[in-house]
Structures are given as structure tokens and as C-alpha cells.
Amino acid sequence: MLFRNRFLLLLALAALLAFLSLSIQFFHLIPVPATKNGASSKSRKRILPDPATEPPVTDPIYEALLYCNIPSVAERNMEGHAPHHFKLISVHVLIRHGDRYPLYAIPKTKRPEIDCTLVANRKPYHPKLEAFISHMSKGSGASFESPLNSLPRHPNHPVCEMGELTQTGVVQHLQNGQLLRDIYIKKHKLLPNDWFADQLYLETTGKSRTLQSGLALLYGFLPDFDWKKIYFRHQPSALFCSGNCYCPLRNQYLEKEQRRQYLLRLQNSQLERTYEEMARIVDIPNKQLRAANPIDSLLCYFCHNISFPCTRSGCIDMGHFKVIKMHQIEDEKERREKKLYLGYSLLGAHPILNQTVSRMQRAAKGREDEIFTLYSAHDVTLSPVLSALGLSEARFPRFAARLIFELWQDREKPSEHSVRVLYNGVDVTFHTSFCQDHHRRSPKPMCPLENLVRFVKRDMFVALDGTSSSYYDACHREGI
Ligand SMILES: *[C@@H]1O[C@H](CO)[C@@H](O)[C@H](O)[C@H]1NC(C)=O
Ligand SMILES: *[C@@H]1O[C@H](CO)[C@@H](O)[C@H](O)[C@H]1NC(C)=O
Fold it and tell me: Which domain of life is it from (predicted)?
């Protein structure tokens, strides 16, 4: 118990340091706090919450900084922590791509000037960046399922294309890979030196940013890997559901959820005024501005420390940014409460969880293939998985977010297998809905594999409607 408390204290300190160093770096972007309005300075002093397991604080700038995930900040990582008599059997990693250029431009403004070529002596640095570029040039199309073979293997445009991975994004995943290498390869010997192709299972959506993120993580994990042993599969669906995507009820939940979002937005008159003001500055109709999803662009300016755009009529500023970001936080809060998104998530996340559980079960039976799995994906992939697992307090997936499932064998009872779940390096095993109760009964720091299996094969549907016992039944039930 003492150890646990001390550990929590360390976590809190790490979070505090991370926040302080971020705030200092970005000081010029943060308006001098209005001291009359003591709220913001008070929130700084408060002990910071754990960003993986506690809901967003009402500080939109802090939330935005976490979202950027700027490299160089000391990271917490609890991956691979287990008592000595446990042996690591397999690891399953689901990532969001790293920092990217916006997907939309704000009409009539200058796009943020970011160079997407990789340059070793430009920030953010990574000691492996040059070697990574050189290794990528040696790859061949044979390592990729079509149409991945037609994508560039690292970002390369002097003026970033829409949605392109940036150097920051590459560095974030080189770091993720290196961190996982230190724990899983060096410490736990998950793969032997002469690992073989079938021991990896690699899958990515068809965007260059996900493929390149996957390659950067893999390079950090297995530096100078043999290209002949690599095969990236293409996943056409952002839900990673190929073969099992047809699920009418999931779509109904999504429509209701979108309606909820729309209604909440209408209630927020401050948000409405902010959009109107921005539309006036940019000189386009309000509707057109909204359609360009300006927060996506603004986050890019913010994360890259570039001033928000100006026109002759004025500038978009931190005030606008804060209002929109704050609305996102409120939206996430209502999303948790109304549970429509949970319904969508339980159905949407089933196929990828089912796939993962099947691999774990095979590994538990002693099969040695597919013991390291990497799915390179999007926020719209991770978000439903987090929600389905019951990690409702987890933040909206930041750039280069990582969700990891570890499978362990108890050497003292070799037939028993246990699972740990980690989100961005934080152990969230006992925050999941399938292991919350277990925690209270057991002194073991892990969750039995059977709990996860039971959840994915049955309980997640029961949680949905109380009666369905399979994915097919749940997807085809009469409307909600
Ligand atoms: C952000 O930009 C300002 C000026 O534009 C600069 O002084 C500051 O050092 C920059 N911060 C970082 C972290 O690059
Ligand atoms: C779940 O996994 C099993 C075993 O791999 C597979 O046969 C089944 O089709 C999967 N079901 C869904 C809905 O993904």
C-alpha cells in the first residue's frame, strides 16, 4: 500500500513537471492571466489530475497542450511492470498517428507554414532520425499490401500537404518505439534477436500518416529491421472492422450521438458568437467557416507555436481558441453522461477487440506467431475502443497516443494468464469495466485474461441492451 501511494505521488510529480515545462515553452502563446479573474491562476496551483484516468480539467490550454504531445517532455511509462514470476507473452499496440498538418484550411487565410521534410538538425530532434530516413529509402513495395506500396515511407513535402505527418509526428513515434524497445525487447525479451516475420502482425489504414507513424514506431522498436521480414497489411476501415463492418444499430447510435452534439452546440451562445466573430474576420459565411472545422487548423498553429492567422479585419486569437476548445471539453462531458457514444463504441470497437483477444488466446496456448501486434490508426479508432473498455475518463486521443494490451503468464501457475492495459503509459487495467471489480478482490496487480475474453465475447453486448449475446444479434436489434 505504501509503495502504491509513493508511486501515485511520483506520477503526480511527473505530471506537474510536464505541465510546467510545457507552460514555460509556450509562455508567449498564453495570455497573461487576468489576475482579477483569479480562476485561472487558482487552477494552475491545483494538484494536477492524471491525464489518462481523470476527466479533463476546465483549463482548455492545459488540455490543448496535452493534445499536442510535444516531444522532449519526460514521459511516464508503466509498460512492462510486473512481479518477477510473470513472463511477458504478447503485446498488442494500438496507436494514433503522430502530429499532422491540418485536414482542412481556414478559407481566405494563410495556411500555417510548416515544412514536412525531415531534417536532422531541426527541432524536434531525434538521434535516430537520419538513420530512419536512410533505412526508409531501402524498403521495397514487397513489404506492403496494396495500395500501401504506393505511399511515401516518410513525410517529404517542403510545404506540408493537408493531413501530412510532420517531423514532430515522426519523432513522437520514434520515441514510442524506442520506449517500447527498452521495455519489451531489452528487459522482457519479447522477441529473440533472430525474430521471424510471423511474430509480428502489422496493420495500418491507407493514409500516409498512419503508415509512416507505424514505420517510425517500428524503426524505434526494431532499429534497422530486415525489410524482408516486414509486412504491413492494409485496413480499409477506420474502425478496423473489415469483414464485420455491417452493423445497422451502430449507425443508429452514431446518428443520435451526432444529433446530441448538434443540440449542445446550439445551446452555447458564447460559441455561436465566437464563430460569428471569426467568420467576420475571415469574411466568409458562418456556415462555411464551421464546415472548415477551424479547431483542427487552430490546434496546428497552437501545437507548432505559430501565431493564429490574421486578415485586414483582425486576428483570430487565443480567446477564440479557448472558447472552442472549452466547448469540446463540455461536449466530451455530455458525451459520457448521455451514453449514446458508448452504444456506438461497444459495437464499433468489438471487431478490433475480438481480433486482439483471439490473438491473446492463441498466444496463451503457446503459439509463437503474432506476439507483437501494431495497429496504426486514427482518433476515430482509439476513441471508441477507450470508451468501450469503460475508460470513459480517458482524454480524446492525442497525437501519437498509444493503447497497449500486455499478456502475461504466471510462472508459478503456468496455466494462468493475465492482462494489463496501458494508455499513454498509465496503467488503466483497473479502470476498465471488465476489471474494476476484480481489483477489489485480488491482491494481484493484473487482470485475468478470462475477464477480458468474457467481456469481448459476451458482456459488452449485455452491457449494451441486457439481452443480446453476440455481435450479430446486437447489431441487428430493432432500433433504439
Ligand atoms: C515560440 O515562439 C516565440 C516567438 O515567436 C519564441 O520566442 C519561443 O521561443 C517559441 N517557443 C518554442 C517552444 O519554440
Ligand atoms: C471474432 O473472432 C473470431 C475468431 O478469430 C472470428 O471467427 C469471428 O468472426 C470474429 N467475430 C467478429 C464479429 O469480429
Answer: Eukaryota
Q: Give the orientation angle of helix 248-267 with respect to helix 269-282, to 10 degrees.
A: 80
Measured over the CA atoms of residue 315, residue 318, residue 321 and residue 326, the dihedral's sign is negative
Ligand nearest the Cα of residue 348 is 2
The rounded distance, in Å, linking the Cα atoms of 38 and 459 is: 47
Q: Which of 245, 355, 476 to mutate to test the pocket of ligand 2 (most atoms within 8 A of CB)?
A: 355
What is the C-alpha separation between 339 and 448, in angstroms, rounded? 27
State the amino acid at position 345 in one-letter form: S
> What is the reported pTM?
0.90
Q: How far apart are CA 411 and CA 88, in angstroms?
A: 10
Helix (H) or strand (E) holding 355: helix 340-364
Average of per-residue pLDDT across 386-397? 92
* 453's grid cell: 475474453
Ligand 2 close to Cβ of residue 358 (< 6 A): yes
Q: Report residue 150: phi and psi, to 5°.
A: -90, 0
Q: Give residue 240 CA to ligand 2 midpoint distance, Å.
A: 13
Ligand 2 atom closest to the CA of 241, numbered from 1: 14
Amino acid at 183: I
pLDDT tens digits, 250-292: 999 999 999 999 999 999 999 999 999 999 999 999 999 999 9
Sign of dihedral through CA atoms 219, 349, 241, 359?
Answer: positive
**Sign, CA torsion 48/50/53/57:** positive
Residue 364 Cα to ligand 1 midpoint, Å, equals 50
Domains and CATH numbers, the chain: 70-241+341-476 (3.40.50.1240), 248-338 (no CATH)
Helices (H) and strands (E) in the chain — how many of each? Answer: 17, 10
Three-state DSSP class for residue 156: coil
Cα-based distances in Å from 382 to 150, 151, 326, 453 = 26, 23, 21, 19
Which residues are the active-site residues?
Answer: 97, 379
